[in-house]
Task: inverse folding
């Protein structure tokens, strides 16, 4: 009985989301993984997975076993690396969830640079803006933009995500330039639909007093880059992260508005489950991103 092999098999099933995916990853027959999983559950006396036609889901017992198995396998990896002649090499698979637009615009190049430094690392990337369960879906870490990260996860701040209010010169020529935040109530709003209240825009006035305004929604979308392009095309006013807007502001395609007001500021975080020993590849990747994104974001510096 090889309990480490059982743990690796079970973690592979959870990571892959299916027995067939785990079998492909482990390069064994699907029937062998299925049989070993059944034997493991019999030995433990507990059902570890909910089996449905679409996807495998962890039971409470399965989640507890998965978290402990991950920690044990991480400890084993650290022990092996400590005595390995190739101790300096970082290798293995990293499954990472990335925000769709921020990931494509500002993280894709960094990932390629990291792979150049560590060619034995394998990435499994999922670009999405949905809520995810790191443990349930087998992610090593997630990059997320948020005000406050999930307290059940370890969070490391990577970069501030500032917002700016903008419109195109053409739109302002046709509809006028808002002089006060309240004026936005008579302008066409371009809003990100994944927010809880997309048309309610919050701010802090120059005197330090908070405020908000309900903006008429002309265009609602779940893709930030599309909204940025709509603003450049003169469709309305946009309150959006500067990592989208900086190039258009620099070229004059978009004009910042009410710059004496403070608009929402979030942060980009690296999120990962709490473990006693974070794997070297996860630690190395998070350290790399933190170093590359340190200080004022380069996309904000472009707007000067």
Result:
């Amino acid at each position: 009985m090889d309990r480490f092999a059982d743990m690796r098999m079970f973690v592979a099933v959870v990571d892959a989301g299916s027995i067939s995916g785990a079998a492909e990853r482990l390069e064994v027959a699907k029937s062998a993984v299925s049989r070993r999983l059944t034997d493991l559950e019999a030995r433990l006396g507990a059902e570890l997975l909910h089996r449905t036609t679409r996807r495998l889901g962890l039971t409470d017992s399965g989640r507890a076993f998965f978290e402990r198995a991950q920690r044990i396998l991480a400890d084993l990896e650290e022990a092996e690396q400590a005595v390995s002649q190739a101790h300096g090499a970082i290798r293995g698979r990293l499954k990472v969830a990335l925000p769709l637009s921020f990931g494509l615009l500002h993280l894709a190049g960094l990932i390629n640079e990291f792979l150049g430094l560590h060619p034995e690392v394998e990435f499994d990337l999922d670009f999405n803006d949905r809520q995810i369960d790191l443990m349930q879906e087998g992610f090593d870490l997630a990059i997320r933009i948020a005000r406050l990260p999930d307290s059940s996860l370890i969070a490391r701040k990577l970069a501030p995500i500032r917002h700016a209010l903008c419109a195109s010169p053409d739109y302002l020529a046709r509809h006028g330039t808002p002089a006060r935040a309240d004026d936005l109530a008579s302008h066409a709003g371009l809003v990100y639909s994944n927010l809880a209240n997309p048309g309610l825009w919050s701010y802090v006035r120059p005197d330090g007093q908070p405020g908000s305004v309900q903006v008429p929604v002309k265009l609602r979308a779940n893709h930030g880059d599309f909204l940025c392009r709509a603003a450049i095309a003169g469709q309305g006013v946009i309150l959006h992260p500067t990592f989208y807007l900086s190039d258009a502001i620099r070229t004059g395609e978009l004009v910042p508005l009410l710059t004496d007001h403070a608009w929402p500021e979030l942060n980009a975080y690296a999120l990962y489950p709490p473990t006693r020993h974070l794997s070297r590849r996860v630690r190395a990747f998070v350290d790399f991103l933190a170093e590359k994104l340190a200080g004022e974001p380069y996309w904000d510096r472009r707007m000067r």
